[in-house]
Amino acid sequence: MSSTQFTFWYKAAAAVVVSVILAAGYSGFRWLEQVTLQEVVISGAENVTKAEVLRIIQVEEGNVMYDISQILLEDRLVRHPWVQSASVSRLPSGQLKVELVERIPVAILMGADGRGKYFADRFGHRMPKTPRASYDIPLISGNMERYHPIRRIEKKATLALLAALPDLPRETDALISEFVWIKSGWELRLAGSGSHASIPVWLGEDDFASKFKNLQAFWGNEVLPHQNKRFELIDLRFDSQVVVKEHLR
Predict the structure, then answer these.
(1) 107-246 sits in which CATH class?
(2) Angle, to 10 degrees, between the axis of helix 156-164 and the axis of helix 208-218?
(3) Can you spell out the DSSP letters for 155-197?
(4) With CB atoms counted within 10 Å of each terminal CB, which end of the chain scores lower, N or C?
(5) Element (H, E) at 46
(6) H helix runs in the chain, sequence order
(7) What gap in Å lies between CA 48 and CA 41, rounded to an integer?
(8) What average pLDDT does the chain have?
(9) Which phi and psi (to 5°) does residue 43 adopt?
(10) 34 with 89: CB under 8 angstroms?
(11) Residue ranges of the domains in the chain?
(12) pTM: predicted TM-score of the whole model, two decimal places
C-alpha cells in the first residue's frame, strides 16, 4: 500500500471514529433531555443544613436534568459563608449529587457583648455560629470590621494571627485561651498551668509563628521548672527576644 493510500484510509477511519463519538454524544444529550430530577443527594454538609442547600440551589423533583446548570448551582453554593467549595453532578439515574467542602474554624470571634458571634477560618472568612458542631478553638476579641457573608476580614494583623493558628503544636495550643486587641497589637491570655495563673503575653501585629515558638520555649525552660516564680507579663513584640516582668514579693 502506498503512503498516499495509507493516509487516505487513516483519515477515513479517523473520520468514522469522530462521527461515532459525536453521534453517541448527541444521543446522550437527547437522552438527558428526557431525564427528570428524582433525588438530591448532599454530602459534606455539617454546619450547612439540607434545607439551606435546597433553598440555595432552587431545584424541584421533576425538573429536566438537562436544564439544571451545574456551574450556576456551584456559584450559588459558594456564596454561603460556610461553604469553601462545591461540586454538583447530574447523574443518569435522575440524581443530583451535591458535594460540599466546608470551611474549618480556627477561632471564635467575640462580639461587643462578650459573646461568640462568628467562627473564622485561617483565611479570614467568617461563618455564623451553629449548634450543629463544636470546636475547641481560641477566642478573639477586637480589631474586626463590619461582617459581610462573602467578604473576608481585611485587617492584616488579624489575618496574620488567624493564618498562624492551625499550625500550632498541641502543647502550644493547650496554653492559649484568648486573644484580645490592645493598643500595641494582639495580647494573648494564657490558660493557667500548675501554680501559674493566666499570664498576659504581648504579641504585636505580625510574625506570630516564630513568637509562638519563642513562647513555648520560654514556657518550658523558665515557667514550668520554676513554680515559685510569678510572671506578670511576657512581651514578645521584639525580634527573637522575650521580655518579662516578674512579680516582686
Answers:
(1) alpha beta
(2) 50
(3) -HHHHHHHHHGGG--HHHHTTEEEEEEETTEEEEEEPPBTTB-
(4) C
(5) none
(6) 3-32, 50-57, 70-77, 156-164, 170-173, 208-218
(7) 14
(8) 85
(9) -130, 155
(10) no
(11) 1-32, 39-102, 107-246
(12) 0.79
Give me 87's grid cell.
461540586
Q: Class of 39-102 per CATH?
A: alpha beta
230/195 Cα distance (integer angstroms): 9
Maximum average pLDDT range among 85-89, 92-96, 150-154, 210-214: 85-89
- The single-letter code of the amino acid at 198 is S
Sequence-distant (6+) residues with CB within 8 A of 128 are 81, 82, 117, 118, 119
Q: DSSP 3-state assignment of 210?
A: helix
Q: Which residues of 232-241 are buried (b: 16+ CB within 10 A; e: fewer)?
A: eebbbbeeee
Secondary structure, 3-state, 14-37: HHHHHHHHHHHHHHHHHHHCCCEC
